[in-house]
Write a structure and sequence with these properties.
Strand order of the largest sheet: 1-2
Number of helices: 11
Oligomer: single chain
Strand content: under 5%
Helix content: 55-70%
Largest sheet: 2 strands, antiparallel
Shape: flat
């Protein structure tokens, strides 16, 4: 990158090219460098000018004109003219421009929402019933994604990305619950009593702390690992 030279695939020699490199990302590269996930020397070479592009949630005034734009795109792709009636438009825009709408995927979310409503529009007319149905779908989608991120953050506090990726989905969900309980419990025994509240009744001498300790050990974790970050 610095010398503007590269070796094409299958070539015997390097080629020089006078180019300007434009790069985009949704990651915080400075933080990634600090955590060892991105090369510091590469960032130093590409980080001449930095511009932050605000997401759709930060420029909600762009939503209304883009609803019309997305409808026109749908019509050009399908050859079917689709309109939103007044009530449907007002209801959808009221939600779309409110703080309740997360627009996590930016215009991809908006495009998908308009495409779904237009596809289901009988007679080429999006009704308020379709708008309400789409609003409810977006709310479920965003609330589910938020919960998944919260759960993922719990494990990220005690395990590396590689360790988390190596877990089966079943183990990941179960371990998230266990770590969450450990974070709020006052001791290993207290966490064990809460986690094994049902099965411990079938044991004459329940040792909840030992059961929990062995469970955490399966994943290379200790009580100190999960409790010290409460």
């Amino acid at each position: 990158v610095e010398e503007r030279r590269f070796l094409p695939v299958g070539a015997d020699g390097e080629v020089e090219s006078d180019f300007q490199l434009l790069a985009g990302t949704n990651r915080d590269l400075t933080a990634d460098v600090a955590e060892g996930r991105f090369r510091e020397d590469l960032l130093a070479r590409i980080n001449l000018w930095t511009f932050r592009l605000p997401g759709l949630a930060e420029r909600r005034e762009d939503i209304e004109p883009n609803v019309e734009y997305e409808l026109s795109l749908f019509s050009s792709r399908t050859g079917q003219v689709v309109r939103m009636n007044k009530e449907a438009r007002e209801r959808f825009l009221s939600f779309a421009q409110s703080d309740e709408a997360a627009w996590r995927a930016n215009f991809r979310d908006l495009n998908a929402a308009i495409t779904r409503m237009a596809t289901l529009a009988a007679g080429g007319r999006i009704t308020i019933e379709l708008a309400v149905e789409e609003i409810e779908r977006l709310q479920r989608q965003w609330s589910g994604a938020a919960a998944e991120r919260r759960d993922g953050a719990i494990l990220a506090d005690v395990m590396t990305d590689e360790q988390i990726a190596a877990l089966d989905r079943f183990d990941r969900v179960q371990l998230q619950e266990v770590v969450g309980v450990c974070r709020t419990a006052k001791s290993l025994s207290a966490a064990g009593r809460e986690l094994f509240a049902v099965s411990r009744k079938a044991k004459k001498l329940p040792n909840d702390a030992d059961r929990l300790r062995k469970y955490l050990l399966r994943f290379g974790l200790s009580w100190d690992d999960v409790a010290k970050r409460r």
